[in-house]
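Researcher: For the record, we're logging two predictions in this thread. I'll number them. Prediction 1 follows.
Model: Prediction 1, sequence and structure:
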Amino acid sequence: MTQIEILAPMDGMVMELEQVPDEVFAKKMAGDGLAIDITGELAVAPLAGQLVKLFPGGHAFVISTEAGVDILVHVGLDTVELKGQGFTTLAKEGDRVAARAPIVRFNREEIIGLGKNLVSPVLSISNGTITQRRSGPVHAGQDILFTLEF
């Protein structure tokens, strides 16, 4: 078995997925992981790999490794409806990125002002089992959010 550490992509307070007020994430239909109630305004790569998907508007992205690990970072809930308002992409789909590389900057106050929740799921959407989960506060690119074994 191989283990890979997934870094917190944003500053904030860790939440279990079951606490996320969105059924798709809370019932782990999109994958297993944790969520972060964000306090910052930057999302970084939670691991090194290729930015295989950068959703239009920058509200979500997927990093994939050569080992077959795929991590989805979804900034906020229902933020797709903003069509990019409040988001600035800092990388391009297809880019190879280092862990901690800036991917998306977002205006926290503007997004909240538009009525969107900034609870942000970070999911493993590939094979593997999460063996260790973080709780409490995390800092983007500094703290391990969870460990994935595959």
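Researcher: Logged. Prediction 2.
Model: Prediction 2, sequence and structure:
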Amino acid sequence: MILVSIVTPSYNQGRFIERTLHSVAMQRTANIQIEHLIFDAQSEDTTLDVLRNFSQPLTWVSEPDRGQAHAVNKGLRAAKGDIIGWLNSDDVYYPGAVERVVEIFINNPEIDVVYGQADHIDLVDQPFEDYPTEPWDPGRLLETCYLCQPAVFFRRSVFEQFGPLDESLHYCMDYEYWLRLARGGAMFYYMTEKLAGSRLYADNKTLRDRVKVVREVNDMYRRTLGHVPVSWLFYYAYIHMDVAPYFRSRNKYVYGAQLLGFILYAAWHWNRSVDAETRHRLRSLFK
């Protein structure tokens, strides 16, 4: 019997969390025992009623925390399973996902992290686009986060070796963790199967706070690597242009000048210079 621990941070997701709980409960098989750990930050909606009345085994607590990363870390420290997954309270696993992941871990003892494909799902769990996952390439990971967090599983030994999530981060704590593992030599395995649905909707903080997300990513890179990859400087500029309607000039020259201004600002703000790679990308963009 293999024990798999699933950690779920929760706060005011009463309209979704029952679907999350069911998606975890259905992962149990004759050979797989599921330990589902929910750390709730004193939700004020129907979440606690759902947790109290759920028919399948759960371990949950509702108490103040210091944010999502802190809640996940509490779960990681409490987890007893040899394999751990992290599923937010508005996301879902697909049927058979854990069983397929466990098989990969059993057959590949050198693998530390398994991640698969996923969907973006809407408010009623309908997939509307593929999550942009990619085969494992640590260099490419510096340019974009192509791991879908609910479709990632890792051995407990990973947590023991690399420690907890960075609790100073509010948006990119998962991305920072994958980068930390990659730099530390952890072995990743990419499954070309869909394992989870990652919910994307207007109130979702990743979509709602896109500028803050990229700003935090860039701050994280500056702190951990000493510089920000060029792709993230460009992301910052493009997202600023996208979220502010008054920057969407129909005049391509005006738009181009505004975009250039944001890119140069990002380069100087985070990297203190416009290096050769940034200049090359700018020449390619504006030629």
